[in-house]
Write a structure and sequence with these properties.
Length: 168
């Protein structure tokens, strides 16, 4: 469980957020093509994993667009975004914004990230949605960078994430 804020009002998350050096739990997400993906689908690749409340909010959209640009030239990696948004919302957003470097996926069906990744918010106006987080995994899917953004309305530390990725 973590203590966060949403517009400076305290909220909590359920579960334990992964920290550097840990392996992460498997997940099952649904892509914009309605196919299921899991951690095994990215064997041998680094994963820049972004989890957030909803693509239909300004900060979440900016986070996706910013990482899409910053990770365009990173080899042997996949940029993965997940929330509880429906795959159709991701498809609409990706088309409208020209997102081509990111894989977007929904956890609406299984909620596999909720407590096993410690990102589901408990309390506040976004109760039940995912908090904002960035987890970077190496090729063996060990955590090399971990940020659960303390104020849900803030952007993540892009530079910190990119430095961890480049130095891995």
């Amino acid at each position: 469980m973590a203590n966060l804020t949403f517009k400076n009002n305290p909220i909590k998350t359920l579960g334990n957020f992964p920290s550097v050096g840990q392996s992460v739990a498997d997940f099952k997400l649904v892509t914009t093509e309605l196919a299921e993906i899991s951690l095994a689908d990215f064997t041998g690749k680094k994963i820049i994993f972004n989890i957030f409340p909803s693509i239909d909010t300004t900060v979440c959209a900016l986070q996706l667009k910013t990482f899409n640009e910053k990770c365009a030239d990173i080899d042997n990696s996949v940029l993965l975004f997940a929330s509880l948004d429906l795959p159709f919302a991701f498809s609409r957003f990706n088309s409208a914004e020209g997102i081509d470097n990111a894989k977007t996926a929904s956890d609406y069906r299984y909620k596999s990230l909720a407590e096993s990744y410690g990102v589901i918010m408990n309390g506040g106006p976004l109760d039940g949605l995912y908090a904002r987080a960035v987890i970077i995994l190496d090729e063996q899917h060990k955590v090399i960078y971990s940020e659960l953004v303390s104020e849900v309305t803030d952007e993540p530390d892009y530079d910190g994430a990119m430095n961890a990725l480049k130095n891995a």
